[in-house]
Design a protein that fits this description.
Blueprint: E1 8-10, H1 14-36, H2 39-62, H3 69-72, H4 76-87, H5 99-120, H6 138-171, H7 178-183, E2 185-187, H8 202-226
Antiparallel strand pairs: 1-2
Helix pairs in contact: 1-2, 2-5, 2-8, 5-6
């Protein structure tokens, strides 16, 4: 008996999906804890985010095809061509991030990393300071705290653009990108004909996550030992 061809194809691996929804939660926790002055929680959420970002960078080098930077960072000419096609109503589908979205992903990762990096040297002007704040002068720490606040506004702007873009694909292009970020699967009709996605083994993700968490934990311990 002939089997029906699969109509849904896996495009996102579990690490990417967990990474995505975890950073959404951690961003909310980081904002809320800073607003309320829960600095211990702020530190823990920030360091968890750092571990996840380090993991994501490593996964972008050795992870599954759709996770790799080489798969979704295209030269500017290709990005412009893609955007022109999009405006002209072309129906071009991508298994992973499209050429414009790819750079947005890199920008999001970069600003989040900058936020954590400045947070490590920040202080609340009262009794809390980031784990590496005592490595720099008080003046420098205060300046980095200001930059930390500024970068957060930039994050909000990028996240807003990100959500508007996802909404655009859904409402204007009829392409729901959110569901695949939850289930991992896209409809075959919304994928290129030629598809060759290789999924990296999960134990490699776990190994990379352990190393990333180790680095974040080491930074936290450095903070305690500086005191
Ligand atoms: C709140 C903060 C958010 C941040 C910082 C964020 C960040 C990111 C990042 C870094 C990626 C790339 C994933 C990867 O390759 O590792 C991504 C992809 C994606 N995000 Fe978000 N995201 C946020 C919120 C949301 C929300 C609320 C939604 C849903 C409405 C959403 C929907 C998506 C989708 C659908 C993709 C995949 C896009 C594609 O198919 O190319 N994101 N996001
Ligand atoms: C290890 C990581 C982090 C450390 C040690 C840290 C530390 C700090 C410190 C010391 C302050 C000053 C608090 C005050 O003035 O009362 C602060 C403020 C803040 N942090 Fe962080 N932070 C970290 C990560 C993050 C992350 C990941 C986010 C969000 C993405 C974030 C968002 C904020 C916001 C929104 C403020 C308030 C800024 C303002 O009022 O101008 N932080 N953080």
């Amino acid at each position: 008996m002939d089997r029906e061809p699969e109509t849904r194809v896996r495009v996102w691996d579990i690490p990417i999906r967990l990474f995505h929804w975890s950073i959404v939660v951690l961003l909310c926790v980081s904002w809320f804890s800073a607003e309320q002055g829960y600095m211990r929680a702020h530190l823990v959420s920030g360091l968890t985010l750092l571990a996840l970002l380090l993991f994501r960078i490593a996964w972008g080098l050795v992870g599954s095809t759709t996770a790799r930077f080489s798969n979704f960072l295209h030269p500017p000419r290709r990005v412009v061509g893609y955007l022109k096609g999009l405006a002209g109503g072309d129906k071009i589908f991508h298994a992973g991030h499209n050429p414009a979205g790819g750079w947005m992903v890199l920008a999001l990762i970069a600003v989040l990393l900058a936020q954590v990096a400045t947070g490590l040297f920040a202080n609340d002007g009262v009794r809390f300071h980031g784990p590496l704040a005592l490595l720099v002068s008080e003046d420098a720490s205060t300046r980095l705290t200001d930059i930390h606040g500024l970068i957060f506004n930039f994050i909000l702007l990028l996240v807003w653009c990100h959500i508007v873009a996802v909404g655009f694909y859904l409402l204007v292009k009829g392409d729901n990108l959110v569901w695949p970020m939850i289930t991992g699967k896209k409809h075959r009709a919304r994928l290129p004909a030629e598809l060759n996605i290789v999924f990296t083994r999960l134990y490699i993700a776990l190994l990379l996550l352990a190393v990333s968490a180790g680095i974040a934990a080491w930074i936290m311990i450095q903070g305690d030992s500086i005191l």
